[in-house]
Structures are given as structure tokens and as C-alpha cells.
Write a structure and sequence with these properties.
alpha/beta, 4-stranded antiparallel beta sheet, 8 helices
């Protein structure tokens, strides 16, 4: 899961980044409105943590941009401005939640999981496809009810596919989602091939009915055999 953290306070940004990474999220940073606008234009995110008061603009304006571009999804406003008007305006513009500063990190993590479940899995902690089931709280992966061991990147790749069954995914989109936005500067995606090769072997050995298929010249998709 990839998160964009839009926060101008360097100290808080560092604390939140570290905490989110401990929760196994891929975290991208935007210290100001301009950077956040550019990133949301170029990339997609599973969740955006958005401060309202930014040095060069207002977070609500970014919400308007997202709404107009139809790229909005899973936005949590995190702001010291805890006025009713800001909260109402943010929610009216499509924000999914509002968390006033200061807040406990545990509450932030719970809010993130909640909005992602609500949007992507109808509130369910499990993602299922074929005979594969993933518990997104514990990071356990089951095939036919038996746990299989995956490394972190194999898990992230599998979950990305399971949330997009039968959809053709190009290598650069997959790389950005699992490794972060900076990865689009790489010359090749051999590292993806190696991770997917190992993942496919593990799924096959476990008797998984879904299969990750390579589409020559484009990327991959997960489909039922």
C-alpha cells in the first residue's frame, strides 16, 4: 500500500514517515502544495494524508484538484485547524476522514486501515480471490486455508494484484505501487521479474488457483486458471 504524506512540518513528517513505514506502507512525501499537486497528477496512491495549512497553498484546493481529475480516493485530512467549517468543507470535497492534531499514531493507523477497507474491501480485513485469502491486518497469506510464507515485496505484489483481479498491469505502475514513485527513473524492471518469479513458484507449490500471467511487452495480470 502506497501513501502520500502531505505535511510541511519536518519533524512531524519524519515521525509519521517512520511510523507508517513500520506499518509496512510505502511512503512518499510532499512538504508543500506544489509538490503534492505534482505527485497526485503523476502518480496514484492508496491513501493521502493531507494537511490543510501548507506554506504555498491550502490543502482544500488540492482536494478540489483531485475531485476534478477524478483521482480522488482515501483522503484523510490531518490538520491543527479543527474548525467545523474546515471539517465540513473537507468532507464535502470528498475527504474520507478528518483527524485533528495532535493525534496518537495508533489512531492514525486505525483510520488509514478503516478508509482503505471501506473503499476497497467493504470493511473486510480479508482480501480473497480464488483459493487465496490475505489477512491485511496480520499480513498472513493463505492458500486453501494453509499459510504460505512470503517476503515483504512478494506480499505487497500479491496484494496489489488481488485488489485488481483480471486487470492488465504494466511494469512501471506495479513498480511505483510497491517500491515508490522514484522507481520510475530506473532503466529496467528486472527486479520485478525476479520477485514475481519467486512469488509464482510459491503460489504454484501451494496449489493456488489464481495465476500471475506475463503479457509480453506490457506487464502482468492475475487470473483464475
Amino acid at each position: 500500500m502506497k501513501i502520500l504524506l502531505v505535511e510541511d512540518d519536518p519533524a512531524l513528517r519524519e515521525i509519521l514517515q517512520h511510523s507508517l513505514q513500520q506499518e509496512r506502507y510505502v511512503v512518499e512525501l510532499a512538504p508543500d502544495y506544489h509538490t503534492a499537486s505534482q505527485k497526485t497528477h503523476d502518480y496514484t496512491y492508496d491513501c493521502i494524508l493531507l494537511d490543510i495549512m501548507l506554506p504555498d497553498g491550502n490543502g482544500l484546493s488540492l482536494l478540489k484538484e483531485l475531485q476534478e481529475s477524478k483521482k480522488q480516493g482515501n483522503v484523510i485530512i490531518i490538520s491543527a485547524k479543527d474548525s467545523l467549517d474546515d471539517k465540513v468543507n473537507g468532507l464535502d470535497l470528498g475527504a474520507d476522514d478528518y483527524l485533528p492534531k495532535p493525534f496518537h499514531l495508533a489512531e492514525l493507523h486505525a483510520r488509514i486501515k478503516s478508509v482503505i477497507r471501506r473503499k476497497n474491501r467493504d470493511g473486510n480485513i480479508f482480501t480473497k480471490y480464488g483459493n487465496i485469502k490475505v489477512n491485511t491486518d496480520t499480513f498472513d497469506v493463505y492458500v486453501e486455508g494453509k499459510i504460505i510464507e512470503l517476503n515483504r515485496k512478494e506480499y505487497d505484489i500479491l496484494l496489489y494484484f488481488l485488489n485488481r483481479p483480471e486487470r492488465l498491469l504494466n511494469k512501471s505502475t506495479l513498480a511505483e505501487a510497491v517500491w515508490g514513485d522514484h522507481i520510475d527513473q530506473t532503466d529496467n524492471f528486472d527486479f520485478i521479474y525476479a520477485q514475481i518469479k519467486n512469488l509464482r513458484k510459491k503460489l504454484m507449490a501451494a496449489g493456488a488457483t489464481p495465476e500471475i500471467k506475463a503479457v509480453y511487452g506490457f506487464g502482468y495480470k492475475i487470473t483464475l486458471k
